[in-house]
Amino acid sequence: METIRQLENLWGYSSLCAALPASEPACASFWTAIDIAVVAAFTLVALYLVRKMVNRLLMVRANRMRGVEKTSVADAATMDQYKADTDKLLEVAHGENVEERIRQALEKRQAREWLSPGAPDGASKP
């Protein structure tokens, strides 16, 4: 019951202040509250609109980036045409000794480096 009485008093005060000029000192708090409410409402609407605009701009940017990404890679037919034949690269006869081939390649490389006149860092080998 008390709440209804307070609302009735607030309604009477609001009606009186709305009828009086804004310069009336008794209604200063009413007009200040109205000003704050209006500014808050406009701020919320402006933030909502800015949020929608930013979301749309980000969506457009993401779509543009996807388009650039699609055009930066060749189509499937071109990729298949230049695809490496990895089956040939990995073919190793079962009878070959892979470890022995690696050792021989390393020995050749070491011999070549030993016989070269200069080391990669510029110092000569003895």
Question: What's the topology here?
Answer:
Blueprint: H1 2-19, H2 28-72, H3 76-81, H4 86-89, H5 98-115
Notable features of this structure?
single chain; mainly alpha; 5 helices; rod-shaped
Characterize the structure shown.
The protein has helices spanning 2-19, 28-72, 76-81, 86-89, 98-115. The chain is an all-alpha fold and 126 residues long. It has a domain at 2-14 and 29-72. The radius of gyration is 41 Å and the shape is rod-shaped. Mean pLDDT is 83; it is low at 122-126.
Brief sketch in words of this structure:
The chain is mainly α and 126 residues long. The chain has helices at residues 2-19, 28-72, 76-81, 86-89, 98-115. It has a domain at 2-14 and 29-72.
